[in-house]
Design brief:
- The chain has twelve helices and eleven strands.
- It is of the alpha/beta class.
- The strands form two sheets. A seven-stranded mixed β-sheet has the order 6-5-4-7-8-11-10, sandwiched between helices. The chain has a four-stranded antiparallel β-sheet with strand order 1-2-3-9.
């Protein structure tokens, strides 16, 4: 094969270390009229989507109704308010390990903040919160409604004026084309002894083994990387970040993995298109029924997510 020939679909190089990857599985059908597969790097202990989708496709996916904007939800009435209140409660439980290690008045940067719901919750806890995202309109709405300052663009390219006590990547790293420069920038933005809180889907989870290409949290093609606990630890150690807390359970996403994998029409992005009361009720019911399985897999360290906290050990 010549150097200019395209690489066969079953061959690839790991985007992080450039070593040979291997095919884990093919997606069974075209997605957005394109074919994708999932490959694995046994050196980095991660998976990655192959090929990466184009910027145009990602723009098509993310901009529009991907996030539940607060202004749009207000038009949906009591049902939307109830769903968002429930989500806020679960977010509070999700981030509690970080909150317990901080004191009121400390500074937090929420990277890839999405709708801003987590940032608003942290602000209500007494923290000084700022946010980062690629959607300027979303950031403007968050600042107008809640007075939370937003920074638009790539974290590695923004000139921040101060450092933070904690930085959050809540289901963000898996979306990034180049996560290593972003993590390096985040480590540099931390004060000495600062914390990075991360949640990502677990590449070594029981749910992935059961559902494979049908697993909801695989989320092809918008999820470009698929992290294992060991793989994430190895990446963070490159930037002098030591793990101080770990779980494979998420109150927000673990049970949802079962519900939305069994019934793809119950995926939150699809539910927000119709706000069908029967479907929302079914979605919540399936999550409740899945809780015993979630408890077992999490106890065995094979839960749906990698939820971890890392402390900065030396200046970066």
């Amino acid at each position: 094969m010549s150097k200019t020939s395209p690489m066969p679909a079953h061959q690839s190089h790991c985007p992080l270390c450039n070593r040979d990857g291997r095919l884990a599985f093919d997606m069974p059908a075209a997605i957005y009229e394109r074919r994708f597969s999932v490959h694995a790097c046994d050196v980095c202990r991660i998976g990655y989507t192959y090929p990466f989708p184009s910027d145009n496709l990602l723009y098509e996916i993310y901009f529009g109704e991907y996030w539940a904007r607060e202004s749009a939800l207000e038009k949906r009435g009591l049902l939307a308010w109830g769903v968002q209140t429930f989500n806020a409660y679960r977010l509070g439980i999700m981030i509690r390990p970080l909150v317990k290690k901080l004191t009121a008045g400390m500074t937090i940067l929420d990277v890839g903040c999405g709708s801003g719901q987590l940032a608003v919750y942290l602000q209500s806890c007494g923290f000084k919160v700022e946010v980062n995202d690629i959607d300027a309109e979303l950031l403007a709405e968050i600042e107008t409604r809640h007075g939370i300052r937003g920074y638009c663009g790539d974290l590695a390219e923004i000139d921040f004026q101060h450092q933070y006590d904690a930085i959050i990547f809540n289901n963000v790293l898996e979306h990034l084309r180049a996560p290593l420069p972003i993590i390096e920038s985040a480590a540099g933005l931390l004060k000495n002894d600062g914390l990075i809180f991360i949640e990502v889907p677990n590449w070594e989870s029981t749910q992935l083994q059961v559902f494979k290409a049908r697993w909801y949290h695989l989320a092809i093609p918008q999820h470009l990387y698929h992290f294992s606990p060991t793989g994430l630890d190895g990446i963070m150690q490159q930037y002098a970040m030591k793990r101080v807390w770990f779980s494979t359970f998420s109150p927000r996403t673990s049970a949802a993995g079962y519900a939305a994998s069994l019934r793809p029409e119950l995926q939150p992005v699809r539910l927000r298109q119709t706000w069908s009361k029967p479907k929302i009720l079914l979605y919540l019911t399936l999550q409740l029924l899945a809780l015993p399985l979630v408890g077992i897999e999490s106890f065995l360290g094979k839960g749906a997510v990698v939820r971890a906290m890392y402390r900065k050990t030396t200046p970066v």
